[in-house]
Amino acid sequence: MKVVVVGGGFAGLAAAIALQERRHDVVLLERRGILGGRATSFRDAVTGEDVDNGTHLMLGAYTSTLDLVRRASAEDLLLPQPNLKIAWIDDEGTTALDCPPFDAPLHLLAGLVGLRVPLRVKLEALRLGLAARFGRPPVGLTLAEYFRRTGQGETARRMLWDPLALAILNESPDQAAAVLFHRVYQEAFLRDHRASRLVFLRRGWGVLVDRLGRYFEGRGGVVRRGALAEAVELAGGRASGVRYSQRAGDRRDVQAGRGGQAGLEPAEAVVCAVPPRVLPRLLPEEWRMRPPFAGVDRLGRSPIVSVEMWLDRVVVDRPMLGLRDSEVEWVFDKGRLFGRAGPPQHLAFIVSAAYRSAPKRNAELAGAAEAALRRYFPAMADAKVERTLVLREPDATFASTPETEELRLGATTPIDGLYLAGDWTNTGLPATIEGAVRSGRRAAERVEAWTAAGGPAPERPPLSPSGDDASS
């Protein structure tokens, strides 16, 4: 069967690869010249090093993503921790949640013992863990409300939960949907100690998505880069293809007048793996304001700001570190992660839910990163900043509030043959790469079931990390 997938991010790639592996004829349309969506990278023209459009992390619980990486024979790009270790620095020094390889959740308890936080914070953390393990999902609550109900004080929030919640949800606890944090906590920390390990990349994300693209194309899939989807075509009430505009490939195409050519890719099924703000304009006009599509534009968005900085000497002595009481929340030694431990030290700083930071000037944001280094690292006193880059992702994630949870759509739609994928769809997870991959695979499953049954298959609950239905 011929399937067109619109969007070459992780959701679109996962859907396209899953469909191609099921021997469907798949064409992937991507409006840009590169794949990866909001998780890609570029080569810095000055230093020659990979620069991600925001530092993205994986967890051992990302079973679908890691399986996709294995299928593409790209495991050599992964750098997993042996066991979970997250370190923070403040004015009193460095401390770490250093978890031994005990069965979950005992590994967390053992790691918590050695963490430099007050005893009452450790007891409150234990209480939250018990609530996440045995309590009901906090549907309809903000994360701040859930913290209050589980007895988390201001110190516990400042030292533990708020930094983790911002990193996981890209939203402040006062606004974020508690049920998403609850789901991640269960999957990552309560089932298997290996699920909580952080997984870094040895290269930029663009290198990984290139591998995924080559795997897809090597098996017969077709990628049309520079193909801007304009509309999903319907025939007889069902999806029959995608109209698109093909951008010029290079300067010679432009000079030859070959840019901006219109095209129509026929299909028996279409998977739209595009951001929620893009989806309505692809739909026939009569569908845009009808349920379930009418509420998609109310999902909102949450920005991320990252600062890339090169120093003339090594200042930060570990691959990742949380910066307490700082505008920039985390720092990563990208040079070390990429296999280069000496100078110049390439650091990446992250600001999540960057509503206040995003409008600031680049110099202010770079200054905040440099100030954090000078505050916490004595070696920074004589260091020289050789280069900085400031990157903004205004649409980094959807705004993960309790209200928007009700607006997230499933994989199937009322339009016969049209399916949806994306981290913003109803995955049960926040806007993560794992959520995107699961959504793409689910869309492929729905296409396959629809093909076998001769009609749309009913929507199922979100998948568990094992790939089974969460309700089973």
Describe it.
With 472 residues, this protein is of the alpha/beta class. The chain has 15 helices and 20 strands. The strands form five sheets. A seven-stranded mixed β-sheet has the order 8-7-16-17-18-15-19. A five-stranded parallel β-sheet has the order 10-2-1-14-20, with helices on one face. A three-stranded antiparallel β-sheet has the order 5-9-6, with no helix packed on it.
List keywords for this structure.
globular, disordered C terminus, 5-stranded parallel beta sheet, 7-stranded mixed beta sheet, 20 strands, 472 residues, alpha/beta
Distance between the termini: 31 Å
Q: Please report the total strand number as a whole number.
A: 20
- Strand proportion: 15-25%
Radius of gyration: 23 Å
Large-scale geometry: globular
Structural class: alpha/beta
Mean pLDDT: 92
Q: Uncertain segments of ≥5 residues (pLDDT<50)?
A: 456-472
Largest β sheet strand count, sense and barrel closure: 7 strands, mixed
Please give the count of helices.
15
Helix fraction?
A: 25-40%
Strand order across the biggest sheet?
8-7-16-17-18-15-19
SSE blueprint:
Blueprint: E1 2-6, H1 10-21, E2 25-30, E3 41-43, E4 50-52, E5 58-59, H2 63-71, E6 78-80, E7 85-90, E8 93-98, H3 106-113, H4 119-134, H5 143-149, H6 154-169, H7 178-189, E9 198-201, H8 205-218, E10 222-225, E11 227-235, E12 238-246, H9 251-255, E13 261-266, E14 269-272, H10 279-282, H11 285-288, E15 302-311, E16 320-323, E17 330-333, H12 334-337, E18 345-351, H13 362-376, E19 385-397, H14 402-405, E20 418-420, H15 433-453
Parallel strand pairs: 1-2, 1-14, 2-10, 7-16, 14-20
Antiparallel strand pairs: 3-4, 5-9, 6-9, 7-8, 11-12, 12-13, 15-18, 15-19, 16-17, 17-18
Helix pairs in contact: 1-8, 1-15, 2-15
